[in-house]
Specification:
241 residues; eight-stranded parallel beta barrel
Length: 241
């Protein structure tokens, strides 16, 4: 399992890199669960990482096909290995699939050479209006490379308080059967990491657990080291960046 650490700026990214994170994510923690950093900040982080690790980008929640296609294209052109797209409180599966397909089109149009940017569809465990199994299937149909199970409310109980071990394992199995990577995040603590690892998840994502004092503070390299050590991480890539 790989460790993804979300960075709000290049200082965070530097600490995540020094601590041994496998994936450097970009996210604005003041802008919600999937708050996007500006393109300028993304480019700064991407330049700092300089190919040492894949860099991903949270793109917020999609509400319009034209807008999400453009945003996915812009961040892909800036070097994102994959982009994460949410669909907060959208109950219409066809609408989610349409928005997801638009993001995939944007990512595909961005890179004329080199590895393609992959799209990860995000479902919130605390706002799931589409059943998880159905969401996995529509993610596969829509052209996603993976599914992220996250939480929208970062002041709530966290993923482990919302899902049983059986539920998480079932999601992992469903994603793998569909040919998708499964990532898990959502107010996870260092003590939750073995739970995610033992479910068979491919990626575990953290922000607050890697920070000095909560998710809006700075990432600390030593905390990242502890997280990485706790889950005895396998460094084999799960996505073809």
């Amino acid at each position: 399992m790989q460790l993804l650490v979300s960075a709000a700026n290049d200082d965070d990214a530097s600490a995540a890199l020094a601590g041994g994170a496998d994936i450097i994510d970009t996210k604005d923690p003041d802008a919600g669960a999937l708050g996007a950093v500006s393109l300028e900040v993304f480019r700064q982080i991407h330049s700092l990482v300089a190919g040492a690790r894949p860099v991903s980008a949270a793109l917020s929640d999609a509400i319009d096909e034209i807008a999400i296609e453009r945003t996915a294209r812009e961040y892909s052109e800036a070097g994102a290995a994959f982009v994460k797209v949410g669909f907060a409180e959208i109950a219409d599966a066809r609408r989610v699939e349409s928005l997801l397909a638009a993001a995939v089109v944007g990512a595909d149009r961005a890179r004329s050479q080199g590895p393609p940017t992959r799209v990860v569809a995000v479902i919130y465990a605390d706002q799931a209006v589409i059943p998880r199994d159905a969401f996995v299937q529509l993610a596969a149909r829509g052209g996603a490379a993976g599914v992220l199970i996250d939480t929208a409310n970062k002041h709530g109980p966290g993923l482990r308080g919302l899902m049983s071990t059986t539920d998480l394992k079932a999601c992992v199995d469903s994603a793998h059967e569909a040919g998708l990577v499964l990532a898990a995040a959502g107010t996870l603590t260092i003590d939750d990491l073995e739970w995610v690892r033992d479910s068979g998840a491919d990626i575990v994502g953290v922000r607050g657990a890697a920070c000095e004092n909560g998710r809006t503070s700075r990432v600390v390299a030593e905390k990242v080291r502890r997280l990485r050590k706790r889950i005895a991480l396998d460094v084999e890539p799960v996505l073809e960046f």
